[in-house]
Amino acid sequence: MIREDEKEVIKEEERLEERLLKGSPAEAREADNVEEEGEGEGGEEAGEEGAEGEGEGRQEVEEAPQEELDAKPPLQGARQSQEAQSSALEAAEKETEMKAEDLHIGKGAEDMVKAVRVLQRFYRFKKYRWFDLGRKTHPVQLPEHPGDQQIPVGIQSGRDPVTAWHDALRASRISEGDGSGEPNRIAIALSYLSEVGRFAAACRAAAVLAVHEVLLHPYGMDTQKHSKHHGPDSPREDGDRFKPPQLVTKDDPLWPLVRPRFDGDRVYVHDSIVLTVIGGNSHESSQEFAWRLYQHDVKGFQALADAISSNSQSHHWALPVAVLVDYLGFRVLCRPQILAIGDPPAEMVLGPFAEAEVAYGAPGDLPELWREATSSIDAAQQEQATNPVAYPGDSAENRWRQQLQTRSRAQFASLVLHEWDRRHPELRQELAEMASDLGLQGYPVCLMSDLPKPLASTSLLRLRSHSIPGARDPENPEGEELHFRSPAEVLPPEINLDPKPNNSRIVDPVKRLRREALWSLSVPPLPPTHAVTAAANVGQRVSSEPLKDVSNRAERELPQQVLDRISSEGPPLDSRGWTEVLHASGVNIRHMSRVASLASSSAAASLHREALARSAKWLLRKRLWKKKPWATVAPQVIHEVHMGPERTAALEVLKIFNLVLGSGADSENFWEQQLVPEAARRFGFAAKQLQRHHVKPHALFQAMEHHCRVKFELDAVSRPFFRAGYPNPLKEEDLALFTSSTLQPYFPHLAAMKDHWIRRLEHYDAVDEESRQIRDHLLQEPSFQGFWPDVRIICSRGEEWSAAVSAPTKHTRENRWDRVFQVLKLQLTFARAIGDSPAAVGGILQGIAVALLEMAKQSAEKPEKPDELDEIATAMQSRGPKADQTCLKKALWAADAATKMLPSTISSWWAQLAALEAEWLLEKHVEAHSRVQRLQTDWDRFCPDQPVLMLRLEGTAARLYAQQGDWASAAMHTERCCALAERAFGRTHGATIALRAPLGDAWSRREDWDKAVAAYQEAYSVAQVCSDEKTTGRLAFELAQVLFFKGDLTGAKGFAEDAVKLLIPLELGRSSGQLSGTSFEALTLLSKVYEDLCQRFLELHETEQAEVSPAMLQALVSKAIKCFETVLKNLPASEQAPRRAGVMSRAAQIVQSVLRLKVMGLGDSEYSVLVDAVEELLLHASVSETASALQRAMSQTRGVRQLQPRAETRAVAEAALRPVELEHAEEVPVKLMELFEEVAREALINGIPPSNWFDHMVRVVAEGFAGAPVPGDATYLATIQMLELCRFFGNAARVIMCATSSSQ
């Protein structure tokens, strides 16, 4: 619940936000000057020119004179100084009286929303303008990334050269107070993420250099050569700035500070970055185990970084920062160097018991307590033997020793931990909060590990680096930092619920649950390892049942959550999307077969393709792990020595791709003997689900590109895959060189890398003659072809990032697309600051394109008067909505920018659909048609097994044609939607049934009634089979409506009755007895059908085409009256009053229909009474008003003339009741209009039905006149009103004649 004070804060934020968005006070003027300067100072004109330049007038823009471009500088706002930004922000805060604590982000959902609003306010004062209409050639300019121009360098003046990056990252977290003395959380977050982005860019470059250093000496190097090339005396260039990555060997003094996990790992140091090239041991199974263990280290670092950021406010904690780089078949873990030679060794504060016996620790740390407890037991036992009555003392230490005397040696672990808790109360509290955030029991360290004995597990270390102020004083707590080491076992393990005979292990230490799974399942705290649960018999009160229960629930519940997520957010578009969806739902990739077993055929096909692509990746890795330098002890192959490792890796990639995508016996054998068995073993699919003929080759090619971290040239995707006669569709020249503007973002700083290697090879020439010979014969400049460095950044992105990521979903549900746009721009700022991949940035731009399109459509002109809805709707259907042209142009540019950054057209499908609609609304129909054709071609090539994507495209086209009023084209595209939906979901799925209704609507608007009826009948019959009463009732109403417009009243009557029978009980059971929506409209339609049927029967009887039974007609009239009066009873309040003068309200129209039916159903007796009353008036007619009225009546009746009193008066009375031929058939006299409104008010206010009012009038007339008729008398007024009704409706005589003729 939100407290009252929090509500006031939120309201104040909303008021501030509205002022900033609408531009009423000074903040809005400042924000407009900053954010919309292109649209302000001549911006509209510049924008229109820019729009013309981005379409048909592109050539004109290119030929524009330079003076015209210089006259309107588009980046004036973006180049303002930082001081102006700060002053604008401070002025806005002072003017709105914002408190400093508003910038602090809380943990709750309300605080998260509040954080987003603060972020939005902060953004509006940033000088980024990425959608500038004045910029004609490049209207979309992304926020600058710190590593875009050149490789960032950590070693700079003022920084320690050994720990430069660690110092820079730590300094970026230090909060600098603003004028009020409070830290600005948002500025700190951006500063920290920007520094992490610089570090990641430096790590990517350093990892590529380190990998090529490994390739440079694939067969080892003796100590003398190593010292020449990598040692401290190796040559340097350019004023001590150039030096290759330094290989750290076991003889190096730095080795104890950067020691890796495995013997096969190679460690380099470059620019204060420690680079671990993961190698594992000698054989491939250990290699895969090493890769997976390091991957869990990375996951643990990420989890701990988020936990520390959320729970710890102390600067003693070092936020884990790491970068994982996959390149050329290698995996490199990059971390900032923390310790230098001469620094004190790391102290274990808390960690595994097995390591505590030999680890170094300060007094009070676990190693010292463990050794002290061990020695205390021996000393206490000896003292007990020599002096059994000795008093131990009252201190806590003495009581602890006394407890150790009474416990067995196997049970004192709990006493040691209890003593550690007592000596570290503050640290214990912080660790408990982190463990709670991670969902762990105890602490976020591993006390008993599941890993093999030599491998280190999660522990907490205390470091005193010389770069930390106060580190020289061992007694100064400010000079220390707390670090987590090897956090592979932070997350709980996954229990093998059904171990196979050849693998009887219950727990595999490299198979663990994901954090998202723990969040999704809302489980209680779990033990971090299974070994802790196995120690229950030695005093640990921990059970393995929670782990088994969570593993079981994850297997049963998480796959369905994936499908629910896909249903709400749309299907993933590529391999990256599937990885994100599975991981966000807590499903490990190895369990994708569980998701596929529940998914639709299209989703299952995508998962089958993912399994094959990932299996091909592992087969490629296994091939490389059998060669040098990927395996340190692999055998030497002569021809590979002469080719070089880089070309060897490229040829292996081509072999894998050609075996998977080629044709011939070799390809078929590879599928049958290697690829399919590997996919079935790793992911649990059946072999028959992965057969070659089920797979779309071009989509598989793109998935393999993504997973193998390989890039081919753009035209390689058009190669003849799976085609007979093409066993090797891909050639070596198809591998990308990353020189084009499209592929360059995948390999930044390529030019700098090549320049480095030119110097590196020159370095060989400067060493000795032997090195020059190797340089001339074997060593060549790297080609950097095909493989690109894929970077995964591990750091704490903060609550501000989480707020910016989670807010778009909330705003989308609320249809607040302006907020979605603002928050997505924040995401773009953060993503560019940290240096996310091009695909991640493209995904954000794709969302921005959709948000801009929706904003443009929301700004379309809306009708001001409700009575003009029909006219304006007709106009909109013929011309389309008048959307905001500026937003449409921005949406188009953002969509095109997203397409360039995403891997393929399919990956940017939603952006393409937004661009299509934007072009259509901009009346660029030729470009829109061309885009539709391109999308259809790409869909046919890459994903014809994904009908949902084409369904969205066809649906968009159908909607656009409908807005234009081209109902034939709209119906054609809607019919395609129906076929695609039936293929994707099945004939009986709700989506398939729902699409039949728009198809029928399109045909009905084109007045092709037969096709409309066929579409509705198809949907109606399927809905009946599915037993969906609500859908069946709605479709029955639609079908009845079409039949009614067609003129088939008999058919409409049956379906309208079905709709009423199905919908009204559902509506009454859900609401408080009031009808609304479709049920109300169905009842209204049924009333009209009954009324028209009555009129049709009378017409048929009058033309002697059919014999009409009065009883049947009376029954039909009675049903129609009951329906109309029920409609009147449930009429909405907005339709009870007249819309404007001279137009009847809907209530009056219902009264008119009821009275028409009552007149139509008059019997012999009622009609005779009415004739008698009129005759009585005729007999007493004089010069009064009655005479004039009767004179008018007789004069308007053809062939009637006034007779003498009592002479043929009855004939005259009957003639007076006959209908009057009005000049306009639909025109209602003013008096009757007033009468209908009055009767309607009586029915709505007093609950008197119109039929009761009519019966009352008949009774009054039947009572007769007490004397001579007097104007104003009740009988007189009733007679006149009945006379007017009969003359207006004109059906009473027909009914009587029908009754008379039938009786005769």
Automatic annotation (TrEMBL):
The keyword Cytoplasm applies. Residues 1-32, 230-247 have a biased composition (Basic and acidic residues). The keyword Metal-binding does not apply. Keywords: Cytoplasm. Residues 33-54 have a biased composition (Acidic residues). Residues 139-498 form the Clu domain. Residues 1-99, 222-247 are annotated as: Disordered. Pfam families: eIF3_p135. Residues 78-90 have a biased composition (Low complexity). InterPro entries: CLU-central, CLU_dom, CLU_prot, TPR-like_helical_dom_sf. Gene3D superfamilies: Tetratricopeptide repeat domain (1.25.40.10). This is Clu domain-containing protein.
